[in-house]
Design goal:
mainly alpha; 2 domains
Length: 448
């Protein structure tokens, strides 16, 4: 019976050594205490290696060679204790296995979570790089916009300064031209008074001319009869010298007529030049309108680009760089609004200048029509003067009387031709003054 108990105890101890590594515990006083400890140490040192042969259980008495027998009650009690300890160790091992499985699952979940975190970290780092590059690109574009705004401000200031200078010069020239116009108006009034006096004299002259012609006809008849008598009496005598013909005065009249015709041609040339100048001004106005349309298109494109940049900046994350970009964008928007107000002001000024140009064109056309009418009237007067001169010369040649009719008609012709010549000169001066006034109003459209 004792040998059976010893064998059962050895089997239980071997089972415990196989199931639990380095955890064999035997109460002191048992025979298998030393062998159990040595088996546990071997298991811990061998890193989980299990021997094939079960260890032999011996007691201290066998080690020391005593060989004292043990009671059956103690053996039975030891076996019960060993079985209880084996059960406890099995329970503890099962709980440890469950904990190990739980820890493995948690470890696997943590590994997956770490992998996800690493992936998200890479994605976030790539997004951060993209956002930084995009932010740098936006900063460069904002710098370019600032440079363009500065250039626009410089150009605007230059244009305003030049416009102010030109306006001052135009004011000075306008004052001078107003003074010249006042002087010319005085001269025109005097010429009108002189022309009215001459017309009144022409209206009064026919009665005197009729009486004078009648007396001349009577004298002609008388002198014809006397001449016939003298011819009969003085056939053998030499011919008497004739009275010098007034050819010199006729040549002078022809010279004056040539001058008036030249002045008329010059006035026509000036009118043609003025028409060409107006055509060039209209072409420049068309060019300005096309440039205005192009600038409006460019402004709309810039406004759309700024709105797009603003939307992109609002979508981006809120960072110190984004706040600075927002501040820069607001400043650019304020400058954009200022530039838009300046553009509106310039468009209003352009419209006012266009209205002034239309008014100047209308006045120029009216002055042109008036001048053409005046030229036609002068041509008619010159034609009438030519006719009167031809009639007077023929009448003088047909008459042999020394009465001063021819002298009076020549004086009349010279006087009237001088008036016409002076009036043409003043008309030419008036047209030149109008052209100078137009150049002062529009100095940028000056042509040769």
């Amino acid at each position: 019976g004792g040998q059976v108990v010893v064998r059962v105890a050895a089997y239980v101890s071997a089972r415990a050594q196989l199931s639990v590594p380095a955890r064999g515990r035997v109460e002191p006083g048992t025979r298998a205490h030393g062998d159990w400890g040595r088996a546990g140490r071997k298991r811990s040192e061998g890193a989980g290696e299990v021997e094939d042969e079960p260890p032999q259980v011996t007691t201290k008495e066998h080690d020391f060679g005593l060989g004292a027998p043990v009671s059956e009650a103690e053996k039975y009690q030891n076996t019960l204790q060993l079985e209880q300890e084996v059960r406890n160790q099995d329970r503890f091992i099962s709980t440890l296995k469950l904990q190990i499985e739980d820890l493995k699952q948690t470890n696997h979940g943590l590994e997956e979570y770490v992998r996800k975190l690493l992936d998200s970290k890479e994605v976030v780092s790539s997004q951060v790089d993209d956002l930084t590059s995009h932010n740098e690109h936006l900063c460069k574009e904002l710098i370019k916009i600032d440079q363009l705004a500065e250039q626009l401000e410089e150009e605007k200031n230059f244009v305003v300064d030049t416009a102010n200078k030109e306006l001052e010069e135009a004011k000075i020239e306008l004052i001078c031209q107003q003074n010249n116009i006042i002087v010319l108006e005085d001269t025109v009034k005097r010429l009108r008074s002189i022309i009215l006096e001459t017309e009144k004299a022409q209206n009064k002259s026919p009665s005197r001319l009729d009486s004078f012609v009648k007396t001349l006809e009577a004298d002609r008849d008388y002198y014809k009869s006397e001449a016939q008598n003298l011819r009969k009496m003085m056939r053998s005598r030499s011919k008497s010298p004739r009275r010098p013909s007034p050819t010199s005065r006729g040549t002078n009249c022809d010279v004056e007529l040539l001058k008036t015709t030249r002045d008329r041609e010059e006035l026509k040339c000036m009118l043609e030049k003025y028409e060409r100048h107006l055509a060039e001004i209209q072409g420049n106005v068309k060019v300005l309108t096309s440039e205005r349309d192009k600038t409006f298109l460019l402004y709309e494109q810039a406004q759309e680009e700024i709105a797009r940049l603003r939307r992109e900046m609002m979508k981006s994350c809120k960072s110190p760089k984004s706040t600075t970009a927002h501040a820069i964008l607001r400043r650019v928007e304020t400058e954009r609004d200022v530039a838009f107000t300046d553009l509106r002001r310039m468009t209003t000024e352009r419209d006012s200048l266009r209205e002034r140009l239309k008014i100047a064109q209308e006045t120029a056309f009216s002055e042109k029509a008036h001048l053409e009418q005046r030229i036609e009237e002068l041509e008619c007067t010159v034609h009438n003067v030519k006719k009167n001169h031809v009639c007077a010369v023929g009448y003088k040649l047909s008459m042999a009387s020394p009465f001063p009719l021819s002298l009076w008609s020549e004086k009349k012709f010279f006087y009237f031709s001088k008036i016409v010549f002076i009036s043409l000169k003043y008309l030419k001066l008036y047209i030149s003054c109008e052209l100078l006034l137009f150049h002062c109003l529009f100095p940028s459209k000056r042509c040769e």
